[in-house]
């Protein structure tokens, strides 16, 4: 599988480096990926000031290949890159031939210029969603999600979400174990799904270095809708229940139960915002009935406990 990164002027380095690291790490593990970097000019300035060199020649592409467009560092989509018509035609032709096209952050605007967002669900960085919706009224902009897939047009939110998108594509093609292996090698402890909030507990409570707590969070993140006993979490992490509780609170400001409740409420809020009833959302995220969900939603935000 060829992965072609279309580099536009003043791109964000992490928009490019995150997905590129996923696919290059997968290639190191023996998965069949070949990476290419193309641009309209050989010299490509970045938003961070580091110049890049790219090829102006496109490789021959097949239906199983992927073109990915990293976002730019411009403050608005209106001031972002304007690729030539011939470049946009390549995106359209690849998609029409059965290939996939993807974007990170404001790279969605390039797909919009190619009319690939028309009639499709898409997303971008939360700070650019309103502008994307105005610029492309035929697109259906999904708000506060990490990535969206619609008919081989794949869009993701800002910056680090490109890693989540690339891991998802890897899991789709080679299975979740392959994605987990790459994620672990990159020290990405949790592979987030597309419907996670762009400002979720999975981000707010991962700024620590305790591996046992990360393993417990991985377990809760994956099985948040299921009953999880402290004894089970301790067994997964390899420490005692008392040690896990102490380290969890010191690292996140929350108990494991409180962290699980936070995830349930966030997932329920997302479902409710997309038209589900409170009762249906409560059952879907693991509450026995809607009363507990209503109580937790009525409380102050489930932030770190002092």
From TrEMBL:
Recorded hits in Gene3D superfamilies, A to Z, give: 3.40.50.880, Homeodomain-like
Record domain HTH araC/xylS-type: where: 214-306
Bilayer-crossing residues are: none
Does DNA-binding appear among the keywords?
no
Report a single Gene Ontology molecular function: sequence-specific DNA binding
The family database entries (InterPro entries) matched by this protein are listed as:
Class_I_gatase-like (IPR029062), DJ-1/PfpI (IPR002818), Homeodomain-like_sf (IPR009057), HTH_AraC (IPR018060), INH-QAR (IPR052158)
Q: Which UniProt keywords apply?
A: Transcription, Transcription regulation
SUPFAM superfamilies (alphabetical): Class I glutamine amidotransferase-like, Homeodomain-like
- PANTHER family xrefs: ARAC-FAMILY TRANSCRIPTIONAL REGULATOR, HTH-TYPE TRANSCRIPTIONAL REGULATOR RV1931C
According to UniProt, the name of this protein is AraC family transcriptional regulator
Native source species: Actinospica acidithermotolerans
**What does the record give as the organism's lineage?**
Bacteria, Bacillati, Actinomycetota, Actinomycetes, Catenulisporales
